[in-house]
């Protein structure tokens, strides 16, 4: 894309009028059909991280203070689907959801009509780029004060080759001057309107994006390029779905951490939290921390209350106890679990059954019993997995399998329960100093383990967040010494560092 081109020999003799846009409009282009993904629905309606892709995208513009209005151009036959998403998500900036055209350029023309004649800033963005950052939106809008057209791009890490009709190389451009284009593409409305007006007279008109239309038909107009991001991927192929989901997982790991004791108290006062597995380890630390910050917490466990998580009657009684005491249940936390090592062929049936019942049947039972309560408060179910969920290891076959099952359960329930406003997340701590781990591995150097208090703090941050369908990694920062005890007013666990603990957590 050309950058900072001259505007012609007479440009210096004229002083352009200052740009005074009436508003800034984000146009979300959602006309794709998902054929390359092999889906029966448009790819923008596919759910990632508990929400349709288009909802993630719209939420970015909804939260951006620079954006005044959002217009959605939806694929034929799915306008009502998009409207329902907008209504359910409470996206107040969305003013129109209309049908797009047969091509990208036709859709842009429809969008320009929908925007109206007043001078304004317009940002065109692909609905299937859900990981757009607020920083990119801000820089696009700011650039329009100086430039009439703005593109977003990132450097190419690969060598780009040019080939002929026989797929033989004809040229290898200098990579340092090449960029890979992304969206949004931003324009002053008179500029993009004029480019399309001129294009109408060209019988050979063809362009893959809107900056290409400006470049071709208004060649004297500088097109400013701002830095995009590697995360701003376009969901086009099946692998992109997995990449986007993993990127959302990494982004979700940055769970909002409040700044002081008072903020946590304001969030938690009046809330009821039920903790299954609350007698020791992470569950105990979470119980104590949440209580200090004002929540009403009800811990249940096999050792202290005789509660067996795999027994539906025990779970029902526990939830009933908390509800009758406070009249509500806002969060249900399941830290209960057991770790049994050993070769599968040598493990006795009683041990196998106990591990499967506690680690998997228990969370499933709790999830089923908790839903009616959590629906009332639009609350959250919080589960716990282990770093071993990513790859099963010898002598941990059933433990690893149950932890992987909890990740899939989290994602499935977040999808199922989204319509009733119940969130589901899963904490993935690295090796943590808990009695269960000590029993399995013996004493270990303190500086190699994450403190249970730090995991409890991160868990609390997730509970008071809006996250759903996420696996949140909790890690010590590289070079950390022993994990300190977490005081009531702050947390010391690091959230969001890359996973990679080698032993079961």
From TrEMBL:
User: Does the UniProt entry include the keyword Iron?
Assistant: no
PROSITE patterns, alphabetized? ADH_SHORT
Q: What is its EC number?
A: 2.7.7.60
Q: Which organism is it from?
A: Micromonospora acroterricola
Q: Where is this region: Disordered?
A: 475-505
Site (Transition state stabilizer) location in chain = 36, 43
Q: Where is this site: Positions MEP for the nucleophilic attack?
A: 175, 234
Q: In which pathway does it act?
A: Isoprenoid biosynthesis; isopentenyl diphosphate biosynthesis via DXP pathway; isopentenyl diphosphate from 1-deoxy-D-xylulose 5-phosphate: step 2/6
Write down what this protein is called. Answer: 2-C-methyl-D-erythritol 4-phosphate cytidylyltransferase
Q: Which reaction does it catalyse?
A: 2-C-methyl-D-erythritol 4-phosphate + CTP + H(+) = 4-CDP-2-C-methyl-D-erythritol + diphosphate
**MF terms (GO), sorted A to Z:** 2-C-methyl-D-erythritol 4-phosphate cytidylyltransferase activity
Q: Which NCBIfam families match?
A: PRK00155.1-3 (NF001183)
Q: Which InterPro entries match?
A: CDP-ribitol_syn (IPR012115), IspD (IPR001228), IspD/TarI (IPR034683), IspD/TarI_cytidylyltransf_bact (IPR050088), NAD(P)-bd_dom_sf (IPR036291), Nucleotide-diphossugar_trans (IPR029044), Sc_DH/Rdtase_CS (IPR020904), SDR_fam (IPR002347)
The alphabetized UniProt keywords are: Isoprene biosynthesis, Nucleotidyltransferase, Transferase
Q: What does this protein do?
A: Catalyzes the formation of 4-diphosphocytidyl-2-C-methyl-D-erythritol from CTP and 2-C-methyl-D-erythritol 4-phosphate (MEP).
GO BP of this protein:
isopentenyl diphosphate biosynthetic process, methylerythritol 4-phosphate pathway
Q: Which family does it belong to?
A: Belongs to the IspD/TarI cytidylyltransferase family. IspD subfamily. Belongs to the short-chain dehydrogenases/reductases (SDR) family.
Record carries keyword Nucleotidyltransferase: yes
Entry-linked Pfam families: adh_short, IspD
């Amino acid at each position: 894309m050309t950058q900072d081109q001259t505007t012609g020999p007479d440009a210096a003799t004229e002083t352009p009028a200052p740009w005074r846009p009436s508003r800034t409009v984000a146009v979300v282009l959602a006309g794709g059909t998902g054929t390359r993904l092999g889906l029966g629905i448009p790819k923008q309606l596919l759910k990632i991280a508990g929400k349709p892709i288009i909802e993630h995208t719209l939420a970015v513009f909804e939260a951006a203070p620079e954006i005044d209005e959002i217009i959605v151009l939806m694929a034929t036959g799915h306008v009502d689907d998009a409207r329902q998403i907008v209504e359910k998500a409470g996206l107040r900036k969305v003013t129109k959801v209309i049908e797009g055209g047969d091509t990208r350029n036709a859709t842009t023309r429809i969008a320009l009509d929908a925007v109206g004649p007043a001078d304004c800033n317009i940002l065109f963005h692909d609905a299937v780029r859900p990981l757009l950052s607020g920083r990119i939106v801000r820089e696009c809008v700011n650039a329009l004060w100086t430039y009439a057209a703005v593109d977003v791009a990132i450097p190419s890490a690969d060598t780009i080759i040019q080939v002929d009709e026989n797929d033989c190389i004809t040229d290898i451009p200098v990579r340092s001057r090449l960029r890979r284009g992304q969206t949004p593409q931003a324009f002053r409305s008179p500029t993009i309107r004029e480019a399309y007006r001129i294009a109408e007279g060209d019988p050979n008109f063809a362009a893959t994006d809107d900056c290409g239309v400006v470049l071709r038909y208004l060649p004297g107009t500088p097109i400013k390029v701002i830095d995009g991001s590697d995360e701003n991927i376009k969901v086009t192929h099946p692998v992109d779905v997995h990449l986007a989901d993993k990127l959302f997982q990494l982004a979700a790991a940055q769970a909002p951490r409040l700044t002081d004791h008072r903020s946590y108290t304001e969030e938690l006062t009046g809330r009821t939290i039920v903790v299954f597995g609350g007698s020791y380890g992470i569950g105990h630390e979470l119980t104590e921390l949440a209580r200090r910050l004002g929540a009403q917490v009800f811990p249940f466990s096999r050792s202290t209350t005789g509660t067996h998580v795999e027994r539906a009657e025990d779970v029902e009684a526990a939830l009933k106890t908390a509800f009758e005491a406070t009249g509500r249940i806002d969060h249900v936390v399941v830290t209960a679990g057991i770790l049994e090592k050993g070769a599968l062929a040598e493990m006795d049936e009683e041990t196998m059954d106990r591990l499967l019942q506690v680690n998997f049947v228990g969370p499933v039972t709790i999830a089923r019993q908790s839903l009616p309560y959590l629906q009332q408060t639009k609350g959250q179910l919080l589960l716990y997995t282990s770093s071993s969920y990513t790859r099963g290891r010898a002598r941990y076959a059933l433990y690893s399998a149950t932890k992987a099952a909890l990740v899939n359960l989290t994602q499935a329930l977040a999808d199922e329960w989204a319509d009733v406003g119940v969130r589901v997340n899963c904490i993935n701590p690295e090796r943590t100093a808990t009695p269960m781990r000590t029993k399995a591995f013996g004493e270990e150097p303190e500086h190699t383990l994450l403190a249970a208090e730090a995991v409890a703090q991160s868990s609390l941050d997730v509970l008071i967040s809006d996250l759903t369908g996420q696996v949140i990694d909790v890690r010590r920062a590289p070079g950390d010494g022993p994990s300190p005890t977490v005081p009531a007013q702050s947390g010391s666990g690091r959230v969001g560092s890359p996973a990679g603990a080698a032993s079961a957590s």
